Amino acid sequence: MTMLAQLQVSGDLAGLARDFLLREGDTRCDLYAYLQGFAADSRISFSQWWELLDRLQQRYPQRHIGLELGQLVRPEFVGVLGYLLLSSETVADALQGFQRYQRLLHDGDRATASLQDGCLRLSWTVDYGPSSQLSDEVLVVGMLTFIRQMTARADLSPQAVQFSFAEPADAEPYRQALGCEVLFQQAQTAILIRPEYLALPVNNHNAGLKQLLEQQAQALMDVLPQSEGFVQSLRTALLKVLQNGEPTSRCVARLLHLSERTLFRRLEDHQLAFKEVLAQTRMQLAKEYLSEGRLTHSEIALLLGYSEQSAFSRAFKRETGQSPRQWLRQ
């Protein structure tokens, strides 16, 4: 299980799946009854969110559930954050608000803004481990849907979208839903937004309402459960021991000021295994280093605490099914 699995997302998202079943007239199934049990102001784990998406996909195996749910996103399915974004002045203003308050929607990796090919690139790392394919589809398509709603521009499309999962057999539904080039098996999930869209006004801009919603959003942020605490500290410690060439549980425990026994107990409490978390962290960093293209494979092996390049290559192929060179050629 990844570190991300035990972190949390907004329970409002369950309403999105419930709305889909309601639109389908499929309200007598066990899944709908299950979804009724989630309160709008609750928090659920990523693993619960992934499970309900999987159940929905299994119920409609011929449909692209992630893409369809993303197209159904409305403010009420993202709570206060949704209404706050709708009260923003411009798309750029809304994206800044999303970055600041996105933990109201989900724990784990935060969206990071950067420039790429003249566009604003909003990207999510996989520092806590990968999310599910369906969840990433909902996130990216949902964000685009929201931008289209706030600008009343149904024709608006990003410059490109990047997904970290492998390319599906039929990628055309992705291109149709997003209206742009879609790249798969990338190091990060990302959406590239054209610069001219950033200045577009938000139709429902209300400065007074925005100020009130920001106060409410901050108050909610202040009382969110600190589910990230141990997981964040664990990841930071893993990065340090990898850099020092001593990726052992003893070294991690020492950095966390814990005994090894306590470390393993804390891992068990979070349904994590040390070897799995270490392997996931190494692979995430390996993909980032490979994508950047600045380091040789030998240097990457050294940075990740492998005894030699061949050990790194074997571990990479064991985890991904491909050698580092094959992965880069994808």
Automatic annotation (TrEMBL):
Entry keyword RNA-binding: no
InterPro entries named among the record's database cross-references: AraC-type_N, Homeodomain-like_sf, HTH_AraC
Domain HTH araC/xylS-type positions: 232-330
Keyword field: DNA-binding, Transcription, Transcription regulation
Superkingdom of origin organism: Bacteria
GO CC terms in record: cytosol
Pfam family, one: HTH_18
Protein name: AraC family transcriptional regulator
Taxonomic lineage of the native organism: Bacteria, Pseudomonadati, Pseudomonadota, Gammaproteobacteria, Oceanospirillales
